[in-house]
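Quick bug: ABC transporter ATP-binding protein output formatted oddly.
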Amino acid sequence: MSDLSIQNLHVSYGSVNAVRGVSFEVHEGEIVTLIGANGAGKTTMLRAISGLEKAKEGSILYGGADLTKLPAHKIVEQGIVHIPEGRRIFSNLTVYDNLIMGAHLRKDTGEVKADLEDCFDIFPRLKERSGQLGGTLSGGEQQMLAIARGIMTHGKTMLLDEPSMGLAPLVVEEIFEVIKRINRRGTTILLVEQNANIALKNADRAYVLETGTIVKDGSAKDLLHDPSIRAAYLGC
Ligand code: ATP
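Here's what came back:
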């Protein structure tokens, strides 16, 4: 079953055509990655899916609905969680309050509590620091908090924008272990990354985006060993 189906999507900023006729699918339960260089249109793709940018043309089908016709808050209600680039946590709120903010649209109080316990189980470091202000966490801890806040939204599909950005290699490994764990718990993942190496090592399938167009796709394993991908994106 196809969870998310993007067909012939075009997104522009004035005269800049950032996404030019992109089509791809994310199936339920998968980890799919979109890789590409700076400015390829990866962030724009995610912003279009979550309703933060308007599509000029094309459709984004999710569970029978065309997301291009819905405002951003309705898209969240459909089960799409967007973890933006640069984390965007609330610096002046505690870790605990940041997490509770993730659940502000939910009415299932009992399940919110269970999800909070899950978050603390997945991220013991956030539990230790639950009273600490978000802005005082390290970069890696802030990324963990952003992902944990996404878990609190209780979505079915998580869009992750460059979770590795600015983090040390060991922290990146830790973040990707968590992403796989969240996936195993039943969340579908669409992951945008400039770090093609880590993305391809952890995803099921991948699409390569160049100047707003998909130029290659396949299993992540195949692309990891593809000589042209290795030369262009893996520096070897
Ligand atoms: P990066 O990895 O550097 O974040 P990206 O692949 O995510 O790159 P986008 O941020 O989607 O790329 O940008 C795609 C293109 O759209 C770029 O040429 C960028 O300059 C342009 N762009 C992005 N946001 C805006 C904006 N708000 N106004 C005008 N142009 C924009």
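Actually, after a second look the formatting is fine. The mean pLDDT is 93. Closing.
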